[in-house]
Amino acid sequence: MIKLKDILSEQVTKTPETIAQIWDGRLLKFGEGDSTLVRKIQSKAKQVLATKYPDAAALLVPDGDFGPGTVEAIAKILGVTVKNPETFRIGPKTLEALGFNRPDQLSLDTKILAATITGEGMGSAEDMKAIANVILNRSIARNIKTTDIALERKQFSMWNQITGSSISEKTQRVIDNWGGGLKSAGNIDYWNYGVKLAKQVQNRSLSDNTGGATHYFTGVRPYWAKGPTYKLHKIIGKHEYGRDMKVSWGEKPVSR
C-alpha cells in the first residue's frame, strides 16, 4: 500500500499543473509546466503588456512554451532584468503582478481540518466525507473543538508522516503537495474537496454517511474494535466505521 509519506516525497518536487498550485507555493520553473497552464500565464502577460508595451505584446505568442520569450515578457512587466532565463521562477507574487486573483485565504483551523481529512481519506471521496464526520461526531460527543479532535495525539496517523516543526508548517506541507489539482480516479480534487468538507464540519452542515460513528480503522483490527463493546456501523472505502463503547462518549451514536 502506498503511504502518505511516499506521496509527499513524490509530490514535493513536481511541477505545478494549475494556477491554484502556484498560489499554494509550488513554483513554475523555466522550461517546465503543463502547456495549458503556461498558455494561461502567457495570455495574461500579453494582456498586461498590451496596455503599456504594445510592441512587446505583439511579440509574445501564447504557445504554451515557457522559454526565453516568456521570461523576457514577464520581466518587462515586473520591471526587472533577468540575465539567465533558466533561473526564472513563477510564484504567487508574479501571479499577482500579472493580475491573477488570489483565492480566498483559509483560516488555520480550516486548513488543519482539511489536511486531516485529505491525508486520512485520500483516494476515496466517501472515505474523506466519513472521516470528516468522525471528527465532527467526536467533537459533538465530547464537546471539544473540531481542530483539537483533529490534532489529538495518536488519533490521526497522517500527522505522524509529515515533517515540520509546527502544526502550521505541517499543514502547509500538505497544501503544497495536494493543493489545487491532484485528482483521484473519481476526478475529485483532494485538497479542495477536503476544504469543502472542513467548512461543513465547522458549520455542522455535513450530512452523516457513517450513521453516527466516532471511530474507524483500516487493516488489522485494533484492540478496541474487538469484543461486544465495539459496534460496527459501516464499511466505506478502505476503512471500517463504528463506535468504541468502552469509552463513555462512544456509547451512543451521535445524532444531528
Question: Would you give an account of this structure?
Answer:
A hairpin with a 2-residue loop joins strand 4 and strand 5. With 256 residues, this protein is mostly helical. A 3-stranded antiparallel β-sheet has the order 3-5-4, with helices on one face. The protein is 46% helix and 8% strand. The radius of gyration is 22 Å and the shape is elongated.
Radius of gyration: 22 Å
Query: How is the main sheet built?
Result: 3 strands, antiparallel
N-to-C span: 35 Å
Largest beta sheet: strand ordering: 3-5-4
Structural class: mainly alpha
Strand content: 5-15%
* Uncertain regions spanning at least 5 consecutive residues: 7-12, 180-186
Number of helices: 11
Tell me the domain tally.
2
- Helicity range of the residues? 40-55%
Order of helices and strands: HHEHHHEHHHHHHEEE
Taking all residues together, what is the mean pLDDT? 87
Shape: elongated
Counting DSSP E segments of at least 2 residues, the number of strands comes to: 5
Q: Layout of helices and strands, plus pairs?
A:
Elements: H1 4-11, H2 19-23, E1 28-29, H3 35-52, H4 54-59, H5 68-78, E2 89-90, H6 92-98, H7 108-121, H8 125-142, H9 146-150, H10 167-178, H11 190-202, E3 215-217, E4 230-236, E5 239-244
Antiparallel strand pairs: 1-2, 3-5, 4-5
Helix pairs in contact: 3-5, 7-8, 7-10, 7-11, 8-11
